[in-house]
Design brief:
By secondary structure, this protein is mostly helical. The chain has 3 helices and no strands.
Length: about 100
Amino acid sequence: MGTGLNPSYFIGLSAALFLIGAFGVISKKNAIAVLISIELMLSAVNINLVAMNKFFTPDAFFGQVFAIFIITVAAAEVGLGLAIVIAIHRKRHSVNLDDFDLMKW
């Protein structure tokens, strides 16, 4: 007995979330908003992986395994990114990406 859903719904949701995240990365100047947008893009990839696994290879768990790896990498990325943002905020008193010019000569 099927669920009545087909993969195109999940692909559409995943594409919309990814595009919203990509727009956020390109348009935002706040470093924390950019990190949230990157997380949104990674969540879109996870939805796509799990949905494609369910519809095309339901006996294998490759989509779920890759999604767990992506969640792990995303958690590390947030921890490291937030630590960098906090360190720069203490130095510059701003989280604006235009103020992150510590590496410039």
